[in-house]
Design the sequence.
């Protein structure tokens, strides 16, 4: 059982690992690298709880193979805050109580970041469609949408 | 010291504010540890083999080839989980559901499990287990299962609650009846009667975090279990009973929980994980896939309900009756009974009768789902109430107000109500701007009411005043949606100190006394009551310490604004002692300062809500869009209004999914056809509008701050509110949930053309 050697960049740090051919990026992040912020809610790309940003593109890490991260830049929830300074989206999720159980929150934050990176001033409808790949069962999405709206406002200078 | 739980009106400093939750930063940075985020040294990977058949006798299981596979450390079957039930049927059923003993009762029923060094080996091992099944006829539909011709699941079950005792076994496990008055006479008095039958399909709680645990059994018989659960004390109790362990030897730690909604109140594979660890002598991690969650955890009942309601021309209901058939999966429970109790709980009725039938089918064991059983009963009743109002030519809100239960009403399920919120929520709906908003073509508005009992239960908290005057509050109710913030607010309020100086944690089973689980909307209600009691006990200690420090009588010390103050003219010169000063001196005044509380938190106030919903139905596709949604609910007292609103919004969203789209689809072979989030589609962000909320506060007289549970009632009205809205939009009464596009098109097609 020989592994595939992968060199990649995760949250700005160079990382090397061995993985099996069938292992997903999510498996690697969680089981080999101890980055358990991304969650497995379905394993089929339907819930978005495992969302990470791969070379600037939002992906479900359960649908990416670990081997595919070779030479890529991976951003995960663990790299969202800069030191002890939370990203405005993280702050607004807390202020707006945009999480209840919180298990979908890392995925939502990655999806919201990818959305605002591409569209800094989205309408409510654009936010709702931008986050439609992420399931939340607790909140009814109301407070999540409001938190993203408020974060966008703040990031655009208020 | 005896605890006075009576409500007293007061001005709050902390309660009612909206601070950031204490566990928040962990949850936005990915640091919070959920069930699958924990590992132990030497841990093995567990996997479960599940029946592909809906109903089959297990003739034999051969595990030899799996056991021989390199890297496999243990294989268990029912033989490794001996029957210790000693005549206790519910114990036996729980054990049988965790691991099938003689028959597999549903597609997904566990039949064997393995623990191996990695997931790949575990998967291979499952394929090497040979199970010889004798496939039996099955039944999955609740109405088919009650027919005399239906395959019978258990030849040992005879319908309970029926006299004389039946002589033939049946899938109807039990009958339960509630009500008062004379419904026949009441219907005689009616000028108008509505009589209809309704069906709802089976839905799943749909928590995003699958069940997960790590079990570790030591050679000396002690064990640890890390698990996502709504009640770690209950899991400890059940696992210990099923495995024949001393309760004290099993320490259970609840992880952060990624949603439960009732589904994590029962043990599923945790006893299996412990059995694997016991056999392998190593820790075992067992995590369900989403497919397993759908097939083998506990969805809600599928139901079939007949309702009859009569009223006089003046708008007064004269009689109401309902017959309810609820699926239980393969094991008897009280789901229909709960439906029968809640059906007419919103109304003041002279003559009412409800009968519930618990129906066994070849589907997974039904579990609680947020106000379990109430939404389906409310769908039937509130649809019929709406139709009756239309027949009478009375506004549906006014009709409900005229018949609403109030303080002193004898409820349809027995007890007499204290102060309740059904009238006020209806009156708030009547004057709400939503009710006056214009509607366009193909649009309709609906409204409906809902009720839930709420629960109190066994509760224990420890409140420790640290040496710097900050406070650590240990509670035993799992925090499913922000309760730690609410309980910190309550401790801060009672002690008169800032919220930021209180840290609330959920203690494990070895460090705190027994707590019932977080169900029945009891988490904040019961633990806040125990927290207030703990805080008052700690204040008593601190008054004593201050008296000691001042060398005066405790009678001359009062506690105000987080300080001990000396009262009386002889103590004018004594400056108040802050909690910090008293805490810092505690080593010299008698040692650590703490307040404890152990109680049965009685007096959970019943809860009511009224929802209003606007929809637009596309007559070409049958698709329904929710345009506007308003939730009005009594909270008693909203401790942290953000999380109260969150409960209202979340329940409404789950109800919207249930009403329009979610259902278990079984094939002719009795196998679940849609065990995944692609084909079992829960609402996504783009499906919903903002969900407006209005919190009413009618104090619960049995809680010091007037708190009522708020978590469950919000899922009760949506099925009916949306069905009423769709019915008004399309001009056809919708009687089958979910109202998916094919069902709406079929209902439209069945209409005679104008």
Sequence:
């Amino acid at each position: 059982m020989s592994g595939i050697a992968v060199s990649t960049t995760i949250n700005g740090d160079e990382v090397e690992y061995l993985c099996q051919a069938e292992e997903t990026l999510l498996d690697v992040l969680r089981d080999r690298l101890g980055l358990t912020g991304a969650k497995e809610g379905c394993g089929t790309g339907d819930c978005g709880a495992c969302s990470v940003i791969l070379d600037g593109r939002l992906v479900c890490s359960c649908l990416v193979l670990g081997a595919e991260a070779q030479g890529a830049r991976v951003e995960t929830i663990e790299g969202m805050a800069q030191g002890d300074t939370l990203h405005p989206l993280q702050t607004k999720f807390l202020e707006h109580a945009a999480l209840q159980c919180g298990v979908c929150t890392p995925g939502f934050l990655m999806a919201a970041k990818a959305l605002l990176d591409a569209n800094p001033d989205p309408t409510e409808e654009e936010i709702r469609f931008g986050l439609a790949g992420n399931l939340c069962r607790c909140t009814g999405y109301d407070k999540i949408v409001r938190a993203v709206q408020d974060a966008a406002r703040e990031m655009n200078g208020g | 010291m005896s605890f006075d739980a009576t409500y007293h009106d007061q001005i709050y400093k902390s309660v009612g504010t909206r601070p950031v939750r204490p566990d928040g930063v962990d949850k936005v940075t990915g640091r919070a540890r959920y069930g699958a985020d924990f590992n132990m040294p030497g841990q093995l990977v567990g996997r479960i083999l599940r029946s592909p058949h809906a109903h089959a006798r297990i003739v034999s299981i051969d595990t030899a080839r799996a056991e021989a596979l390199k890297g496999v450390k243990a294989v268990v079957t029912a033989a490794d989980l001996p029957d210790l039930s000693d005549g206790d049927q519910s114990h036996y059923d729980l054990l049988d559901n965790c691991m099938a003993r003689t028959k597999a009762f549903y597609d997904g029923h566990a039949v064997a499990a393995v623990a191996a060094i990695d997931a790949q080996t575990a998967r291979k091992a499952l394929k090497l287990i040979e199970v010889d099944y004798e496939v039996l006829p099955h039944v999955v539909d609740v109405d088919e299962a009650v027919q005399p011709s239906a395959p019978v699941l258990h030849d040992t079950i005879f319908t309970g609650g029926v006299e004389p005792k039946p002589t033939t076994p049946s899938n109807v496990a039990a009958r339960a009846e509630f009500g008062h008055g004379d419904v026949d006479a009441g219907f005689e008095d009616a000028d108008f009667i509505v009589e209809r039958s309704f069906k709802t399909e089976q839905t799943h709680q749909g928590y995003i975090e699958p069940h997960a645990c790590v079990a570790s059994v030591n050679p000396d018989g002690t064990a640890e279990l890390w698990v996502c659960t709504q009640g770690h004390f209950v899991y400890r109790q059940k696992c210990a009973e099923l495995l024949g362990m001393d309760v004290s030897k099993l320490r259970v730690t609840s992880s952060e929980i990624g949603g439960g909604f009732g589904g994590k109140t029962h043990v599923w594979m945790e006893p299996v994980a412990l059995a694997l660890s016991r056999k392998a002598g190593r820790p075992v991690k067992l995590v369900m896939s989403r497919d397993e969650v759908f097939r083998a955890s506990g969805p809600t009942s599928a139901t079939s309900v007949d309702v009859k309601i009569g009223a006089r021309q003046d708008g007064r209901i004269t009689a109401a009756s309902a017959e309810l058939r609820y699926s239980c999966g393969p094991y008897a429970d009280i789901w229909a009974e709960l439906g029968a109790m809640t059906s007419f709980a919103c109304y003041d009725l002279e003559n009412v009768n409800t009968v519930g039938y618990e129906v066994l089918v070849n589907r997974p064991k039904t579990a609680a789902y947020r106000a379990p059983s109430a939404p389906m009963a409310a769908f039937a009743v509130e649809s019929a109430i709406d139709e009756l109002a239309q027949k009478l030519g009375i506004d549906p809100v006014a009709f409900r107000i005229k018949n609403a239960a109030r303080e002193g009403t004898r409820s349809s399920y027995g007890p007499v109500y204290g102060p309740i919120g059904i009238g006020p929520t209806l009156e708030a709906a009547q004057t709400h701007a939503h009710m006056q908003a214009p509607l366009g073509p193909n649009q309709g508005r609906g409204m409906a009411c809902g009720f839930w009992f709420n629960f109190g239960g066994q509760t224990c908290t420890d409140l420790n005043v640290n040496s710097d005057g900050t406070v650590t509050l240990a509670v035993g109710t799992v925090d499913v949606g922000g309760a730690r913030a609410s309980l910190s607010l309550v401790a801060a309020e009672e002690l008169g100190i800032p919220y930021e100086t209180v840290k609330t944690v959920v203690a494990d089973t070895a460090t705190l006394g027994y707590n019932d689980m977080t169900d029945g909307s009891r988490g904040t209600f019961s633990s806040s009551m125990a927290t207030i009691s703990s805080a008052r006990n700690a204040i008593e200690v601190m008054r004593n310490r201050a008296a000691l420090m001042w060398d005066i009588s405790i009678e001359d010390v009062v506690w105000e604004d987080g300080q001990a103050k000396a009262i009386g003219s002889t103590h004018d010169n004594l400056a108040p002692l802050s909690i910090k000063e008293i805490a810092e001196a505690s080593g010299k005044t008698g040692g650590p300062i703490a307040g404890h509380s152990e109680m049965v938190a009685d007096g959970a106030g019943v809860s009511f809500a009224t929802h209003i919903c606007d929809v637009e139905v596309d007559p070409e596709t049958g698709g329904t869009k929710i345009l506007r949604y308003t939730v009005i609910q009594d909270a008693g007292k909203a401790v942290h209004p953000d999380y109260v609103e969150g409960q209202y919004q979340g329940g409404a969203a789950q109800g919207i999914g249930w009403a329009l789209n979610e259902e278990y689809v079984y094939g002719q072979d009795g196998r679940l056809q849609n065990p995944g989030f692609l084909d079992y589609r829960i609402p996504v962000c783009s499906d919903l509008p903002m969900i407006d909320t209005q919190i009413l506060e009618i104090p619960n007289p049995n809680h010091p701050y007037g708190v009522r549970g708020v978590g469950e009632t919000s899922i009760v009205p949506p099925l009916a509110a949306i069905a009423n809205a769709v019915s008004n939009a399309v001009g056809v009464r919708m009687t089958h949930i979910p109202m998916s596009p094919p069902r709406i098109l079929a209902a439209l097609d069945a209409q005679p053309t104008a």
DSSP finds 21 helices and 27 strands in chain B. The mean pLDDT of chain B is 97. Chain B has three domains: 24-32+456-600, 37-136+210-257+264-296, 303-454+605-749. Chain B touches chain A through 56 residues (CB under 8 Å).
